[in-house]
Give the backbone structure.
Amino acid sequence: MTELFKALKIEKNEEHQEINLVEISEDDLMEGNVVVDVTHSTLNYKDGLAMTGSSPIVRNFPMIPGIDFSGVVRSSEDLEFSKGDRVVLNGYGLSESHYGGYSERARVNSKHLLKLPENISNHQAMQIGTAGYTAMLCVLGLEDFGITPKSGEILVTGASGGVGSVAISILSGLGFSVIASTGRLSESDYLKSLGADTVIDRNELSEPSRPLGKERWSGAVDSVGSQTLSNVIAQTKYGGAVSACGLAQGMDLPSTVLPFILRGVSLIGIDSVMAPMSKRERAWDRLSKDLDMEKLAQMVVETDLDKVQDFAQPILDGKVRGRVVVNIS
Ligand code: NDP
């Protein structure tokens, strides 16, 4: 008899899209050479966009959302992977063109799978999730540029969100002095518990201002974009750098070239979706060494496959703190 398992499916007709918890079989999955029993997934900003349909994340319908998952290999046609291997997958078109992590089982391309470091459990891997892995890519971007704790303070925008919370925690663990920018000053104690030294109101950065401001930080991790990123760049110290990964305020960048040509400031673009495997391995290895798992646990809210939709609009409204783990099986 065909074995059935649960998955969340987005269907779309001309007027609207709807999401249902359905039962499917392996025959319904997309092509791939490894089948994984998914144990955990997460909710990221992009999952909110996909589930609400407020941005064209999903390219083919029907689609199983979930841009990442961790799980255990069930069967593999690639000798690199064996039954029982613990794996993680971030991006590579999950929830865009390939069925994603909100499913008890997934069939994927082995080239997109990464074996988890020994000391990161499947649950922890999704406490980290795409947001945390992206935060590490941002930190690596600053490090590779040559920024060290001696360079001076580092700003983290969107501080209470997923990328922001993990970035603060990693940076503070590495000995950086961290300034957290947030719209939720009520979360100051939370941000300080993660390692922020100073908390500032994001309104300081969200409105148009001068092309060059007072030099305030040596580097930044920005998940907000738009006017905020413009002000972050304009207030970066001479020779500093900004890792830009997000667009929570907007996708525009109303800036001038002055910070680049008068202060030698650099803008580092961060993409997690198509990042090459070598970069992913490096990021997950560093996460296994440099992220305080107790702090990570403080950031997390748990949910299940049948309730994850309830978080879709709140994450877009900036009302979700830290990370959301979706317990799959
Ligand atoms: P979250 O929703 O968890 O965090 C975003 C945070 O941004 C919010 O918590 C809020 O923090 C702040 N924010 C929200 N709206 C605004 C606004 N209008 N103006 C200023 N700040 C705002 O999302 P994630 O951490 O999962 O992702 C953050 C961003 O990074 C998203 O845009 C996402 O698409 C992007 N991203 C990009 C990746 C890549 O590969 N480049 C990978 C992962 C994420 P606070 O309340 O503290 O101000």
User: Anything to note?
Assistant: The pocket of NDP is lined by residues 44-46, 130-131, 134, 158-164, 182-184, 202, 206, 223-224, 228, 245-249, 270-273, 315, 318, 320 (CB under 6 Å). The chain has two domains: 5-116+299-327, 130-269.
